[in-house]
């Protein structure tokens, strides 16, 4: 089984203690709120920016908060990470799920232990206090569908990548984008259905190369997942088809800016992952302190909210466009 690394030395020590048969102490021995956030995969720019937001907001609020980054986008590793946080006795667990269904039971166990649970990029997630989104699935997907059609002139073949076929939000974006294109641009044709490779830059590159070899008329890649646009763009660059094939998707500006300036990576829309990290801490601290989340209240990082209480979801629209004019400034923010 693959292993995963933690972004915080204390958790690795605690895991080692557990393996050796020691009883794990509570994560905090005083009244300080303790928040552990499990992301899709560690060590990539998007989640490095999220970690910076978590760390800075924790220091500002005087809470203990840290990020756990598995070494691959394997849902089983996220389950293990959540189980370790339950054993640690944290107050709040945050998750950016790779597979909502796989996580549902372990998140239920966390809540049974009195631990609050917050998710991001997983609207409709079961067994959570709240899920928050910095962009609506419909608006985000349609923005990409419209942009891809514009760049392709409303005609031609395109392919869609997602982080995984069981990642709810990526597939909701893809659904919205594809539906928009089908309704408004009938001369565009989707190749296959969608490919679950967009959290792995090498898998995205290989898949893009395969699709270009098999479909000489392929005109665009729409990749939902921060490594998908990078991998597809590298494949386009390798085949020397920059300017011929459109590559769109959310990506780290710092990672992709040279590809943007080289005319290989067309651009996209994103929200600020650092801001998402800050919201994990802000919202987690509020919930841990017993604050009720209500319509019309102002939450830093989210603005004025209108929560969907039935589905435990808070959605706001804070899209940022990535293009040749904005990518350098965004990268300078550490994104």
Automatic annotation (TrEMBL):
Keywords: Signal, Sugar transport, Transport. InterPro entries: Bact_Solute-Bind_Prot2 (IPR050555), Peripla_BP_I (IPR028082), SBP_2_dom (IPR025997), TAT_signal (IPR006311). This is Simple sugar transport system substrate-binding protein. Its main location: periplasm. It comes from Palleronia aestuarii. SUPFAM superfamilies: Periplasmic binding protein-like I (SSF53822). Belongs to the bacterial solute-binding protein 2 family. Residues 35-292 form the Periplasmic binding protein domain. PANTHER family: ABC TRANSPORTER PERIPLASMIC-BINDING PROTEIN YPHF, D-XYLOSE-BINDING PERIPLASMIC PROTEIN. It is found in: Periplasm. The keyword Transmembrane does not apply. The keyword Chloroplast does not apply. Residues 1-28 form the signal peptide. One of its GO terms (molecular function) is carbohydrate binding. One of its GO terms (cellular component) is outer membrane-bounded periplasmic space.
């Amino acid at each position: 089984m693959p292993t995963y690394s933690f972004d915080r030395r204390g958790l690795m020590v605690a895991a080692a203690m557990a393996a050796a048969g020691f009883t794990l102490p509570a994560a905090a021995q005083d009244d300080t709120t303790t928040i552990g956030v499990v992301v899709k995969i560690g060590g990539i720019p998007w989640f490095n920016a999220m970690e910076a937001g978590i760390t800075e907001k924790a220091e500002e609020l005087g809470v203990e908060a840290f990020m756990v980054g598995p070494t691959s986008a394997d849902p089983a590793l996220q389950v293990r990470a959540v189980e370790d946080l339950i054993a640690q006795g944290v107050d709040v667990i945050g998750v950016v799920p790779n597979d909502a269904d796989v996580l549902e039971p372990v998140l239920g166990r966390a809540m049974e232990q009195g631990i609050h649970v917050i998710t991001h990029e997983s609207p409709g997630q079961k067994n959570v206090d709240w899920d928050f989104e910095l962009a609506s699935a419909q608006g985000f997907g349609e923005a990409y569908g419209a942009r891809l059609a514009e760049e392709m002139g409303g005609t031609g073949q395109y392919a869609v990548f997602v982080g995984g076929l069981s990642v709810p939000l990526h597939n909701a974006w893809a659904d919205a984008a594809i539906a928009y294109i089908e309704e408004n641009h009938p001369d565009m044709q989707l190749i296959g259905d969608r490919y679950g490779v967009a959290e792995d830059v090498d898998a995205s590159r290989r898949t893009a190369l395969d699709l270009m070899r098999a479909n000489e008329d392929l005109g665009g890649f729409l990749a939902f997942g921060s490594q998908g646009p990078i991998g597809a763009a590298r494949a386009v660059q390798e085949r020397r088809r920059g300017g011929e094939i459109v590559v769109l998707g959310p990506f780290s500006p710092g990672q992709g800016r040279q590809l943007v300036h080289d005319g290989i990576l067309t651009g996209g829309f994103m929200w600020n992952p650092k801001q998402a990290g800050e919201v994990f801490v802000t919202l987690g601290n509020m919930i841990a302190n017993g604050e009720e989340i209500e319509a019309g209240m102002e939450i830093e990082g989210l603005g004025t909210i209108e929560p969907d209480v039935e589905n435990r979801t808070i959605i706001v629209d804070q899209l940022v466009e990535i293009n040749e004019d904005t990518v350098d400034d965004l990268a300078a923010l550490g994104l």
